[in-house]
């Protein structure tokens, strides 16, 4: 990032930002629609790998400087949003590092006081204020030092060889931008009749996949620069089992319904039809093997664990309220960014009514897949 700024100057950089980086934060604050109050689905995912994360760090963290000699650990959570999920994650990592240190101490080495430098990263538009207002007491205990890193994680954010543990959860679905071609009426990949990548039209799927590979490639490369040799990158997220189409999953059905509601609003003259036709969600559920391909292509990490983990809510049928709140908290920013403020209440009222009239048959839908990945930075 800094090299680009030097070359083009701040002003030009700021002017280029809208096309360079698209931003769509989760709903901030602690109100009824906030991510804070509507992220129990993501929280359940994080909780489901709590023990696995702990075991992975104990078994696999293997730094060039022996763990027993290290007294400051640097931890980064990429795409942290506003908590409490990120706080739970960081707490689990810190407790595990303390345990690991204790275990090594008993082997006779160092008993120095441990300190943790924690970096909370998200886009600048994220509500960092609420995150920092809710930091637990032990952040004031001269043991954990926290700071916010407001920038896209598609860039290198830290000096080379500086981070011991990186973490990200529920983030890599978010593309840096919509693939241009799917919004372009002159392109074969124009996604006129849908607002997401259903995997139904080959050209559309290809355009989304290309953008995903570019973004995920940039993410992995940036982390490869930042992590110390032997450092760990933990990645938790959702993808599709190889061969499953998004349109067949319940989340795909939800996106289709929201698209239908937008089109109904256009037909009622509330929003412009052309705007609906050019609207696409900058979200992509990769196939499992696509994730693997990007990591292998980078080559800087050994894949220590890459597996499916059952999401605790995988077999549930969700209430209409739950679905509406979850999706509203997640895509509110994208909708407002494209259609302007003032359409959100109408859209989600219509969506709630539609769900009530046409309930989702969860049993009939194919499953998406939660994955857990543990990467270890190879020695350079
Ligand atoms: C669904 S939330 C997940 C939050 C948290 N990690 C969790 O598991 O609950 C996705 C977060 O990723 C952030 N995000 C998406 N793209 C990003 C990017 N390029 N750089 C930094 N953060 C990003 C969003 O702003 C949002 O806060």
- Total number of domains: 1
Going across the biggest sheet, name each strand in turn: 3-2-1-4-5-7-6
The largest pleated sheet is described as:
7 strands, mixed
CA-based gyration radius: 21 Å
CATH fold call: Rossmann fold
Q: How do the helices and strands follow one another from N- to C-terminus?
A: HHHHEHEHEEHEHHHEHHE
- Strand fraction equals 15-25%
Give the termini separation: 23 Å
Shape: globular
Q: How many individual helices?
A: 12
Strand-pairing-aware structural class:
alpha/beta
Name of the CATH first level: Alpha Beta
**On the 0-100 scale, what is the average pLDDT?**
90
Describe the secondary structure blueprint for this structure.
Blueprint lengths: L1 H7 L1 H11 L19 H9 L1 H11 L11 E7 L6 H21 L9 E8 L5 H6 L10 E7 L12 E7 L32 H25 E13 L10 H18 L5 H5 L10 H11 L2 E8 L11 H20 L4 H14 L11 E9 L3
Parallel strand pairs: 1-2, 1-4, 2-3, 4-5
Antiparallel strand pairs: 5-7, 6-7
Helix pairs in contact: 1-2, 4-5, 7-10, 8-12, 11-12
